[in-house]
Amino acid sequence: MKVNNMISGQYYPGSSFFHRIDPRAKILAVSAYAVVLFLVAGFGGLVLLAAGLAAGIFLAGVPPSWLWRGLRPVLLLIAITFLFQVFLTGGEELARLGPIPVYREGVFRGAFLALRLMLLVLSGSILTFTTPPVLLTDALGRLMSPLTKIKIPVYELALTMTIALRFIPTLVMETDRIIKAQKARGALAAAGGPVARARGILPVLTPLFVTSFRHADELAVAMESRCWRGGRGRTVRRKLAFNRRDAAFGLALLALLAVSLWVGRFQPGELEIWR
Amino acid sequence: MQAGIDSQAGPGAPAKTSLDARQTSTAPGLRLEMESVSLVYQAGTPFASRALNEISLVVEPGERLGIAGPVGSGKSSLLAVLAGMEAAASGRVLHDGREVGGKNPPAPGSIGLAFQSPESCLFEKTVYDDVAFSPRRQGLADGEVRRRVEEALAATGLDSSRFGHKSPFSLSAGEQRRVALAGVMAVDPRALLLDEPTAYLDPAARRELIARLVDLNRRTGVTMVMVGHDMQELAAFAERLVIIDGGRKAAEGAAKTILTDVDLLDTYGLDPPGTVVLSRLLSVATGRDIPAVTGEEEAVGLLLRLMADGGIMSPP
Ligand SMILES: Nc1ncnc2c1ncn2[C@@H]1O[C@H](COP(=O)(O)OP(=O)(O)O)[C@@H](O)[C@H]1O
Ligand SMILES: [Mg+2]
C-alpha cells in the first residue's frame, strides 16, 4: 500500500558514518548548512556546498533512488521557480522559444535558485534518512531544553511528537485495513459529483477518527495509571554524548561552510551569480 | 460472474438475491483458488517483509474452511489476498476461475469480508443505515434493502425493530460486532471471509455466532472461510482446515484429522480442542482405546455411553 511507503520512507536503516553521528550534531549541521545556503550568493560557493553534500550522501550510504524519492515531492516547485526566473529576468538575449525571449541572466538565476532548493531539500532528507524519527524528536527536545526556562513545555512537546510517530505505523495499518474492509462492502467506488465523492470517504474517515480517539483515550489512561506526571524532575536513561566522530564531522562541516561562504561571498556592483 | 448479474438487479427484479433464495440459485457458493501466492508488504524498501510464501489453496463452492496458525503467521494477510483485496506479489488468485487482485477487483457483491474487530468499521448514524450501506450501493429498491437488512441482522441474532434506529456507537461491544457482521452479510455475498469473528466475545456469544454461521452456510450454500484461534470453535465450524505458519501452508486436511493430531497442533503452538484432550484423558483413565472426539455433543455422548456401560463412575 502506498500510504505505508510514504511514512516509512523517511528512515533508511543502516550503520554508516552518518547514521552514527549524534542526532543533535546532525540537526545543528543541517541548520547551519541551510543558513549558509542562503548566504552564499555565487555559483562557486553553491558548487562547493553541493560537493560537500555529495560527500555526505556517500558517507550516509543512502541509495540514489531514495534521494530521488526525497526530491520528487518538491520537483514541481523547483521547476516553477526555475521557469519564473527564466522568463521574468531581463538582460542579454540568449535564445528564443517562439515569440518568447530567453535571457542569459534568467537562465543562470533560475539554475541558481533551483540548485539551492534542491540542496536544501536533499540536506534535510539526509537527516531524516539517517536518523530514526524517535531519536530525531528526542534530539530536538534536548536542543530546545533551555527553552523550558521561559516556560515552554519542551519535554511534553517532544513526547507528543514521539508518541505521534509511534502511532503512525499503527494508524497506517488500520487505515489500510479499513479501506479494504469498506471497499469489500462496496464503498469507495466513488461515482457522481464532488459532493458524492466527498461523502464517499466518510466510511473511512469516521472509523479512523473513532479508532484514533479510542487510542488516545486508552493511552492517556495507561500513562496516568503508570504515574506519568509530566516532564519536571525527569531523568533520562539513554544519554547522548558527543564524541570524536562528532567533533571531526563538525570541524569538516565548519571548514566547508566557511570556504563556501568566502568563495560565494557577495560583492556589490558585480553580477553576483558569476562567481 | 453470477453475483455480478445478481447485484446489478434493478428495483423491479424478483427477490432472487435474498439469503434464502440462494437455495434455488444455480451456483450459490463462489470457488476460491490461490496458485502459489506470495505477498510482500512494503516491497522495494528496506522494510519489505514477506507475509505469504508460495501458498496454494482451493476453497470449493459451499465449503466451510477454517484457517489456524500462530499470531503473525499471515492468516489475516491470506484472507485479504484470497478476497482479492490485496494484490499478490506473485502467483494468482482466482474467483470462479477469473483472476482477481490489483487492477481486477472481485465481482461486485461477490465477496463478504470481515477483518478482525470489524466493529471498528461502523460509521453510519444508525444500525439500520450501516447494515443497509452495501445493499443501497448495489442500487436495490427500498423494500429489498429492508429485507436484506432484516435478514442479515436476524442472521446475527439481532432484532431489526429493536436495534435498527439506534446509533451503532451506543451498543455494547458484542452487539457492535453483530451489527458489523450483519453489514457484511447484507452484501449477500457468494463467499464470506471472516477473520477471528468471535474474538473478544463472551463464550455464549461465540457459540451462538458459530452455530449461526454454520446454519447460514447450510441454508444458502455460501462459501465460508474463517480464521480462528480457538480449535474447539474451528471444530464446530470447519469441514476442512489449513494451518499457516511463517507465511507458508504447514498442514491441510479434514478438520477432524488435523484437530485430533495433538502432536501436529503442538508443533505450531496450537492448543487442541478441549474435547480431544478430554477423550485422551478418558483413554488413560479407563485404560480403553477411546477415539478422539472434536464435537462438544459427541463428547457428551461419549461420556454418557461410558457411564452407561460402567466404564467410568457416574457422579453421585
Ligand atoms: N499492512 C501491513 N504492512 C506491513 N506489514 C504487515 C501489514 N499487515 C501485516 N503485516 C505483517 O505481516 C505479517 C503477517 O501478519 P498477519 O497476516 O496479520 O498475521 P496473523 O493474522 O496470522 O496474525 C506480520 O509480520 C505483520 O507484522
Ligand atoms: Mg490476524
What is the terminal-to-terminal distance of chain A?
47 Å
The helix content of chain B, as a percent range, equals 25-40%
Task: Please write the string of helix (H) and strand (E) elements of chain B.
Answer: HEEEHEEEHHHHEHEHEEHHHH
**Low-confidence spans of chain B: pLDDT under 50, at least 5 residues?**
1-26
Structural class of chain B: alpha/beta
**What is the CATH topology assignment of the largest domain in chain B?**
Rossmann fold
Write the layout of secondary structure elements.
The complex is a heterodimer of chains A (275) and B (316).
Chain A: H1 2-8, H2 17-20, H3 23-39, H4 43-60, H5 64-71, H6 75-88, E1 93-97, E2 100-103, H7 104-130, H8 133-143, H9 154-184, H10 194-200, H11 202-225, H12 244-263
Antiparallel strand pairs in A: 1-2
Helix pairs in contact in A: 1-9, 3-7, 3-12, 4-7, 4-12, 6-7, 8-9, 9-11
Chain B: H1 2-7, E1 32-41, E2 49-59, E3 64-68, H2 75-82, E4 90-95, E5 98-100, E6 111-114, H3 127-137, H4 142-155, H5 160-163, H6 173-185, E7 191-195, H7 203-220, E8 223-227, H8 231-237, E9 240-245, E10 248-254, H9 255-259, H10 262-267, H11 274-286, H12 296-308
Parallel strand pairs in B: 3-8, 3-9, 6-7, 7-8
Antiparallel strand pairs in B: 1-2, 1-4, 4-5, 9-10
Helix pairs in contact in B: 3-4, 3-6, 4-6
The structure holds adenosine-5'-diphosphate and magnesium ion (MG).
Give a written overview of the molecule.
- The complex is a heterodimer of chains A (about 280) and B (about 325).
- Chain A is mainly alpha-helical.
- Helices cover about 70% and strands about 5% of the residues of chain A.
- Chain A has a two-stranded antiparallel sheet.
- In chain A, a hairpin with a 2-residue loop joins strand 1 and strand 2.
- The two termini of chain A are about 45 Å apart.
- Chain B folds into two domains: about 220 residues, 3-Layer(aba) Sandwich (Rossmann fold), CATH 3.40.50; about 35 residues, no CATH class.
- In chain B, about 35% of the residues lie in helices and about 20% in strands.
- In chain B, strands 6-7-8-3-9-10 form a six-stranded mixed beta sheet, with helices on both faces.
- Chains A and B meet through helix 1, helix 9 and helix 11 of A and strand 6 and helix 3 of B.
- Magnesium ion binds next to helix 2 of chain B.
